[in-house]
Request: fold
Amino acid sequence: MCGIVGCFAQKGCYEKLYSALTRLEYRGYDSAGIATLSEGGAFSVRKKRGGVAAIAGAPLIGCAGIGHTRWATHGVPSDVNAHPHLCGKFALVHNGVVENDAALRAELSAQGERFLSQTDSELIVHLIARAYAGDFFAAVSAACARIEGSYAVAVLCADHPDTIVCARRGCPLVAGAGGGALYVCSDIPALCGSAAYICPAEEGEFVVIRAGEIGFFRADGTPVPGKVFARVRGAARPRAVVAKTRMEAEIAEVPAALAGTLASLQEADLSACRAPFRAARRVLSVGCGTAYHATLAFCGLLASQGVPALCRPASEAADLAAGEGELLVAVSQSGETADTLAAARAARARGAFLLAVTNVEQSSLAALADAALFLRAGPEVAVAATKSYNCQLLCLYFVAARLLASRGAPQVWEQSLAALPALARRAFGSFSAVEQLAAAWQGARGMYFLGRGQDAVTAREGALKVKEIAYIFAEGLPAGELKHGPLALVEKGFPVALVCTARALVRKCAAAAAEVAARGGQVALFSQYAEALAIPAAFHIRLPAAPEPLMPALAAIPLQHLACRLALLRGHDPDRPRNLAKSVTVE
Reply:
């Protein structure tokens, strides 16, 4: 989940590294650091606990450099645990996890190595230094061969001031060129505006920047043929929004992001999906966090139409055993989520057809898939997913409509997909009521989010947002489960958000609200139906009306705003929730 960047530039290397790190900070903000290497082979290093702003200062000297922004795994956030790590003639930045950390540390310590940090990453630079006999590439390759786990590394060597050697296994790495500089980076978005051309490294490949050129190599040093640099495609950028935080801005961008997704779907070529859509014995879907909630809504929609559909969190997907004759839909905003990639690779190895839904066209998931749909929602930087969730739902509604039509069951709601951007804008009309709700609930120690049918999924997503950024314990539940245990926690003033977007379930939702009210709990109702106003609730948040299968994409918007307001009222930065990072690239 850390962010790494390497740069070679005759002018402004430090400034380019710093700029890239500011765009990578969503990957971690526990600490940050930069090392540059002068033509004479001297390192200049600046690293500090805290965000990238902590290392602002006078430019460091050198034409080659590496940078890092950290999400802590091994070792607490601190100056000494910050990257880059140095040993002898080498400096290194690392994203990933060294799973044989304990064994390697014991071995190297017995051989006299002394470590300054608690990180697993420092082990790698010690391995490189011990393997070095004049061949920079060979030393990095030898060290990587000893690592069990995942990594993307960028390494400098004092003997080779014009060279950066990089490698990847299980973590993303992309090379780029533009503006008089050559780059390697964890994520494509961090190179937007800097690199004009990019080329992702494949699993197990090494990237070498040397004397103004970029090369791709196998571990034995032989070149990888056929690598092609593609011009950076301009990401769909929603209209400018004035907001104090990125999360507020990204919620405000939901309508424009949905419009970008619609345009992408109109261009999509799903010809390869026709046979799997029609003939798949089962439709399976995986994702993590918010993306998993999108898959729950997708599979619920298909199951309601008689299509065998199952979904799992990607980390728990082994029991799906997706294989030949089955369709797997894998959802990941970044396209680099490690658990999702692992589940996708396993399914493809067993013969399943893989359809990817992602926001990043050159991502590992898109490259792995048989077919892909792209959100084109524009960059999403705030750690808590907002607009990407709405756009994932739109993509999955589109997939569901095409799949059902291929099986002779066209859906009338498909015609309403084009109206979602305008309806999303109308959902902003609920924000003043949501802000009153947030003011009333800001002191809560816990809360429930309830719904029935597909609204139970929306409830889970609402609860996740509150946990992520407001640090309030929140649980999303099917409303019918309330009386089977959770009701024990409801007491006077206990907050309960009730989502009710299915007309046929209004009475059942009313029963759940009555159970809460009878114990003194405080209900906030989220619904588009006037008849739902009879439900006993202290707060009523009116949703825009759309065909019921599409309502999760709209009901999520005021819940996103609620979480953001709660975070701000409680004095927390919604863009940087503690302990979390945007792109989870470790299993």
Remarks:
- The first helix runs from residue 13 to 24.
- The domain at 3-231 is CATH 3.60.20.10 (Glutamine Phosphoribosylpyrophosphate, subunit 1, domain 1).
